């Protein structure tokens, strides 16, 4: 295997075409430079240089070797830059799981900001049913996840990244769709509700049920689903009414009307990650993913 140092010496000599000038640029005396290049030729078994008292020229083999030597040195420098970037989390790969609800709130902003700050990192966004995300973070299938609050996270670290009120989602044909001002939950007593299941979003489900009970009624759940988007699709079809996080207004379903809810419970999104994860890209993401 060739030593890198003689390659640098050879390229410098090829650029200056003079042993004295090359030695000065390399901060060497001329005899060691001459010995190094002679040893390089001996190792290769070819003559690279035509030497004369005034200047140095390259043989055809030397011209070819110069091109390859420059490529090797450039690749070595790039390898060093790549290693440094990877150590700093400025290059590499990062995978983030999220629920559909997060796609209407924090995920687009995070993807834009992180992609702009770290364009050399491959960012993989994976939309997953919420109850499976913590397990995927724990076993290392993904680096971090944005989930609805309320699960058991065990040894994972967590941070609330969004807190927002619930609002009422109604079919545009509903009698209260054109009501002015905020609706009170008691006005929905007797209405059929569409809700996410307690398995998928336990805290959200519990807060909706508790809000109804404080108004003196038990919600009549006509349909349980897993995704907030499915909740809205069912509302659009007139299956029932729903309480959803305010950011779901961005879904813009033409058949759904969103009304503010008086004294609305809050919905939370939580960012999860493992403190054992040593991916440098994750540290940079955590610094960027501040609460909205």
Automatic annotation (TrEMBL):
Keywords: DNA-binding, Transcription, Transcription regulation. GO terms for cellular component: protein-DNA complex. The keyword Membrane does not apply. It holds the Pfam family HTH_1. It comes from the Bacteria. GO terms for molecular function: DNA binding; DNA-binding transcription factor activity. Residues 2-59 form the HTH lysR-type domain. The keyword DNA-binding applies. CDD domains: PBP2_LTTR_aromatics_like. SUPFAM superfamilies: Periplasmic binding protein-like II, Winged helix' DNA-binding domain. Belongs to the LysR transcriptional regulatory family. This is LysR family transcriptional regulator. The lineage of its organism: Bacteria, Pseudomonadati, Pseudomonadota, Betaproteobacteria, Burkholderiales.
